[in-house]
Design a protein that fits this description.
The chain is built from eight helices and eight strands. With 218 residues, the chain is of the alpha/beta class. The longest helix is centred in the C-terminal third of the chain and has 15 residues.
Length: 218
């Protein structure tokens, strides 16, 4: 059974025509230990059919440990977006990016292809000053309409600064992580496992929390 209907496929085809360069989607799964891996694989398989610029590669977490370490993949299913030179752009999706999250996934693909909108100059300058490692986790559920916005902002910041990495985490799939970080409502954003806020907040809020990690790092 198709996961994407004809209408959605047509829309995706039109949106992906805006891609500037090719993007490779790297999917990490694991034999026998992953309830949503098969569905995620099918979903991505259908998605890449909508554009000649999209490519799908598959890895097994156990069999391809070196690749997983390179992209810092520790849980499955995990999706990493690679640019036209197959370079990792520090944005990751943990769990199937379906439901509302198809929006942040599509946006992420466009951004990695070079079709994103630049950050406001003042924000770009503040982000450029970030020189210590930053990890942004955005916990989401697929039925949450406000979650994609938070994921998109986190991924945008990661794309613009080599010290920043950002990952979507589907809260129900990765229940243990959700418990660890006390996720009771989504989107919940956790920065460097220490600073956190709830809701699809502005880039200003993201930056304020990121800058706290820089102050304590010195």
């Amino acid at each position: 059974m198709k996961l994407l209907n004809e209408e959605v496929r047509t829309q995706l085809h039109q949106v992906f025509e805006n891609m500037k360069t090719d993007v490779t989607i790297a999917l990490f799964t694991k034999e026998g230990e992953c309830e949503t891996c098969k569905e995620t694989d099918s979903f991505l398989n259908e998605l890449v059919e909508t554009s000649e610029k999209l490519h799908l590669v598959r890895y097994d977490l156990d069999q391809h440990q070196e690749v997983a370490e390179k992209y810092q993949v520790k849980i499955v299913p995990a999706i990493v977006l690679l640019d036209h030179q197959k370079e990792y752009q520090r944005i990751k999706f943990n769990g199937i990016p379906a439901g509302h999250e198809i929006n942040s996934f599509v946006k992420g693909i466009l951004e990695v292809s070079g079709a994103g909108i630049p950050l406001p100059e003042a924000m770009a300058e503040r982000l450029a000053a970030v020189k210590e490692p930053v990890n942004i986790k955005v916990f989401v559920t697929l039925g949450c309409p406000h979650c994609p916005g938070a994921v998109e902002k986190a991924h945008k910041l990661a794309l613009m600064n080599p010290y920043v990495e950002a990952e979507m985490i589907e809260a129900q799939t990765f229940y243990d992580l959700s418990e660890k970080f006390n996720v009771s409502s989504v989107p919940k954003v956790v920065i460097n496992d220490e600073y956190e806020f709830v809701g699809n907040q502005s880039l200003e809020v993201f930056m304020e929390e990121i800058e706290k990690t820089q102050v304590t790092a010195h």
